[in-house]
Amino acid sequence: MLKIPLFRVFVLFAALLSGLAHAQLRVEISGVGATQIPIALASFANESVAPHQVSAIIKADLERSGYFKVIDTGSAISETAAINTGEWKSKGANALVVGSVQRLADGRFDVRYKLLDTINSSQLSATGMATQPQLIRVAAHKIADDIFEKLLGIKGAFATRVAYVTKAGKEYRLEVADSDGEGINVALRSHEPIISPAWSPDGTKLAYVSFENKKPVVYVQDLVSSRRTIIANYKGSNSAPAWSPDGSKLAVALSRDGLTQIYVINADGAGLRRLTNSIGIDTEPQFSADGQSVYFTSDRSGGPQIYRMNATGGEAQRVTFGGSYNISPRISPDGKTLAYISRREGRFQLYALDLTNGQEQRLSDTVKDESPSFSPNGRYIMYATEIGRRGSLEVVSVDGRIKQRITTQAGDIREPTWGPFMK
After folding, report:
1. At a CB cut-off of 8 Å and minimum separation 6, what does 105 contact?
2. Which of the listed residues 136, 152, 168 is the one where a domain comes to its end?
């Protein structure tokens, strides 16, 4: 049997979700990248006037990424200060971050920063933003994103959101948080299970499966208005929603006609169209990055494996061949890597398959893994696992070197999905 497991937008998010969760997430980091960039990070001048320490948030982001060795300057330095880059080069720093925070008359905060290349004595970036008090953390994450991109050439994903399901006692909660586990808000509370959350490409909606009607039903919830729409409530099971890249459609797994098969439906719940017609169980669909293909899990060959077919239908081709049990396909944003869960020697573990050369790599050391989800920049994969009989989330870099563990004292945490870049 198969296992089924920007700024204006952030202003909306500040008010969109009801019920601030009290239990914050705890993040533990292990491992570093193959190379780390030494970067000096000064406290921002006058940042104590803000509700959060901007430089501390930036530091935590950079350290959590595994790609930076952060050097404390020991003092606050403004972006307007005269700086001897050679001095910081002699201290082992390849780059220096300085900045300031100022309270404006209208109650907002002006956050400014500068990134300097100490090796070449040049300025790499400088920016300023006026932000509401509740969005100070977002401003800090955006600065960390800018540093990440300027020094690594890869878009940062610190100013993104993650969604997941927690269970405490008899209550299930669909929660949304910042990528660092802070700023938790509750999108849905239920005494029945909630599974398979999936972000819309624009980051304003979540599709998910709720059992509140005593059967699995697919909903889409607008995170700004909290309005919910039933997308699939057919006879039998309705499960595994996945958005098309343009947000116009969802792929779902339905058992309305007998065995579970893959269907495509418009984002408003209209226009249902069957995609697969196999003699097995087809489930867990995922659109490819370009929307031209759909990956899914099927046991048509005897055991569950991952297949790919054209998004308009047609013949399916098997993709996974390592091991006899491979489920939960997820495609990287560049379309080159397939992440999935493989059962081998009784262990359910996260694997990644390079679709360009067929090379497979095990990425996890845990043994009860499920629900992988790529970061929007494709550098990390978040997944759920079980540690000491409690659900937790893990984040691993695509090369397996950098690992994070995310836990909560309030109960189990499962079913993660990493949100898109915010526009």
Report:
1. none
2. 152
Strands (E), 201-257: 205-210, 217-222, 228-232, 238-243, 249-254
For residue 275, how many C-alpha atoms fall within 13 Å in the half-sphere facing its CB?
Answer: 34
Domain stops at, among 107, 133, 152 = 152
Strand 261-266 relative to strand 249-254, pairing: antiparallel
Report the DSSP beta bridge partners of residue 102: 110
SS3 358: coil
Nearest to 95 by CA among 78, 120, 116, 80: 116
For the chain, give percent helix, strand, coil, nearest 5: 10, 45, 40
298/184 same-domain check: yes
Q: Residue 373: beta bridge partners?
A: 382
Burial class of residue 192, CB neighbours in 10 A (0-12, 13-18, 19+): middle
Q: Which residues face 317 on adjacent strands?
A: 308
Give the number of residues written for the chain.
423
pTM: 0.92
Question: How confident is the model over 174-189, as pLDDT tens digits?
Answer: 999 999 989 999 999 9
Q: Are residues 79 and 177 in the same domain?
A: no
pLDDT in tens, 234-268: 999 999 999 999 999 999 999 999 999 999 999 99
11 φ/ψ angles, rounded to the nearest 5 degrees: -60, -40
Residues 253, 373 within the same domain: yes
Q: Residue 51's domain spans which residues?
A: 31-152
Based on the fold, state whether residues 147 and 165 are members of the same structural domain: no
Q: Are 209 and 239 in contact (CB under 8 A)?
A: yes
Residue 353 counted as domain residue: yes
DSSP-H helix ranges across 66-180: 85-90, 136-152
Rounded-to-integer distance, Cα 416 and Cα 393, Å? 7
